[in-house]
Input
Amino acid sequence: MLALTSPVQTPFHRLRAGPKLAALAMFTLILFQLDSPAPLAIALAFVAALHLPGGRPFVAHALRLLRPLWPFALILALWHLWTDDLTGGATILLRLTTAVAAANLVTMTTRLSDMIATVERLAAPLARLGLPPRTLALAIALTIRFLPVLSDRLARISESWRARSPRRPGWRILTPATLATLDDADQVAEALRARGGAG
Output
């Protein structure tokens, strides 16, 4: 679960985690200042171009990480068709896709240990308030790492359901998905305890 860094080396793997996270924050801030599809489409094309140095395997993996967005895209499309606001729907969808793709790029090219160290340095002042920076950094990093894993697990459970039943999975997959999530969390906790915990 912890090894989501792409084994395909790109120029971004050589950059430090701090500048990448800062660039991601700045880029996301700019995205939310754009309010029409044309500049957001350019931003998406820019992020897509950043993936190209990794070659086809890297791009294919990045596209797979975007698959969990399709339910949101469908809801957005249906709602904005209903309200006759296609421009607004396209704006939201482009912004969402671009932001997630940029975050995935950082995740795929940054080691978990580097991300933890960076967040820990940024959170150092919070130690005066009684909040251990190491614990906060680990929690944030694990959350970032867990999201695509959980999305992939949910997609696999849905595929298994469809292979065994003609009915749509719907809410029926919530129980196995929850149990799988708890099992993953338990395994991560055991791995952390075996390595001395978060401190």
About this structure: The mean pLDDT is 81. DSSP finds eight helices and no strands in the chain. The helical segments are 17-31, 37-51, 55-65, 70-82, 86-108, 112-122, 133-164, 174-194. Residues 112-199 form one domain.
